[in-house]
Amino acid sequence: MEKTVTKHYRVSGTVQNVFFRKTLVTTASNLGLKAGASNLLNGEVEFVLIGSPEIIKELVKKLQNTKSLNNYGASVEKLWEVQEGREFENHHQTTKFIRKSKHLQIFI
Hints:
This is acylphosphatase. It comes from Anaeramoeba flamelloides. It is an enzyme of class 3 (hydrolase). By secondary structure, this protein is an alpha+beta fold. Helices cover 22% and strands 31% of the residues. The chain has one domain (5-97): Alpha-Beta Plaits, CATH 3.30.70. The chain has two helices and five strands, in the order βαββαββ. It has a five-stranded antiparallel β-sheet, with helices on one face. β2 (34-39) and β3 form a beta hairpin. The termini are far apart.
């Protein structure tokens, strides 16, 4: 059985009002991960990824190394892991109601 981990992150950059959360959650779903993301009042986004540690590592690397994440100009300036965060169910945007999509996913 494959190991499942839960990782919490925060991100800054151009991440609000540019479909960053939906792009992130849709991409996570396409990769077989569970994800939740929420805007913070300081302009950052917090998110949680649940699933294979290897796939999570790959997604985080793509987030850090892709200049423009979607057609709306979402981009990451800084991304860091945090020890605690909002539970999956308490995020504003989650994979619970996302269908797999080719239209909103991180440019690779």
